[in-house]
Amino acid sequence: MTTTSHLIATGPGWEMQELICTAGPQDRPFEERHGSVIIAGVMSGTFLYRTETGKALLPPGGLLLGNVGQCFCCSHEHGAGDRCISLRLTPEYWETLVAEVPGMRSTTFARPMLSPSPALAPVTAALASAATLEKPALLELVPLWAETVMQLTHGERPEWGNASPRYVRRVTEAVRHIERSIHEAQEDDLSLDALADRAHMSRYHFLRTFRNVVGMTPYQYVLHLRMKRAAHRLLNTDEPISTIAFDAGFTDLSTFHRRFRRIMGKSPGTFRRQRFRPSSGQPLDASHLLRRMR
Is residue 245 assigned to a domain? Predict the structure, then answer.
């Protein structure tokens, strides 16, 4: 068995789990079937996801989407292992949520995933902290999270069906390299030129292929991962904001504040204060992380 699961929480009509997969290129993929509606955030690692709605590379920050009864196959052709936070919803609960969202008429996903994006950053930050949230917080977070996903599925989707498998492999290796080295590497090591050279691709070809496969440019993806890490530490530690900013790779505090506000919709200090009750230091609900996206 290559996948282990850890139950995080359950609620009326849903279940949240941490899934850790250790499969690699040597493991033969096999077909499975979704027993419920699935929304899974990739926390680390990469894998290929094939289903009736298409195929997708799932990198950290992406969301896997699955319809109940749908057959699917996951494979790790380009590297071993991944970690996801998976939300499973019963068809009845999902249909109730869809019915309450204006303009939503379909209860099925028409695509296999949502790519990493600034719009998803608050969601993935909340997911990364799911195990530390109190039950009342999760009871509010789950329907808001599901609503956000419903709305974002109507946006643009990356088109990489015509990309050469060898170039998809090289982009996947670049994603894994960024994930492994982002907190230690120098800025130049993660530049477009450095990543393209590492992938043995021209600068423009790598940029175009990376954008089509991952859903954002290499620079945007590096910034996304750094902000995700910073948001997680703001929510779960009392470390100074300056320490968090510098550890995330920002050498200028004002730049960190400006980019954090642009992506998260509020300053780092406000983001942290709204997570805790000033009088007790106890966690508040996490719904504020999603309300700006409604």
Answer: yes
